[in-house]
Amino acid sequence: MSKSPVLLEICAGSVTSCLAAQEGGAGRVEFCDNLLEGGTTPSYGAIASARDKLSIPLNVIIRPRGGDFLYSDVEFDVMERDVVACKKLGVDGVVIGLLTADGDIDVRRTQRLVELAAPIPVTFHRAFDVARDPFKALEDIIDAGCNRLLTSGQEASAPEGAALIGKLRVAAGERLVVMPGAGVRLDNIAQLIAETGCVEYHTSGRAPFASGMHYRNERVKMGGPGQDEYAIVETSADLVKQIITTANTGWERLHHA
Which pLDDT score is estimated for 1? Predict the structure, then answer.
């Protein structure tokens, strides 16, 4: 059989998770902070540490806060500065997403960030999934100069949006890579390959790891309601390996190579 072209990008929420992604065989890392908010830009120190330690490509999300994707002038200034900082640190790509109040792609600002990032590639993230018209948004993202689109097919998860993802891939052709993300798991990635025809996939590959704390004051909680503060959720190298193996097997079976 010929070698599978499937690439797995791991959404990593810490330098530890970045390293686990690499150990598991991931093709690329998207580095984010605050994954429970959908991902925000990591600290300068975290990006620098990840860059020093990783040999696989490192993309960094440029997102100043959680919530919607309509940014003020102050927030956009932060995004511009973060793109410049990431370039200086030697990252391999940045990940952005900006909308207008009417739910269209903010083409002018997207183009500005693409220009600042050049020559490194730019991924447009799942802000696309709350855009008004997916096919107009796709063309706007391409026209703005982005190289890749991360999408769940405008549904809660990529398996639910697989039909639209496949149509977007066909519409984009060779102009842009369409990468399914959100809800991509070990038990569905082979089916997603069959349904969408995409060759890049995005997942976190996370699992809980027990805290090393021996003394625990259970009366005091620092996090959100119901959060187990003595379970650290990180990317699992073993789970990444399993997902990659399943994806490659699924692609090879589909293509009878």
Answer: 45
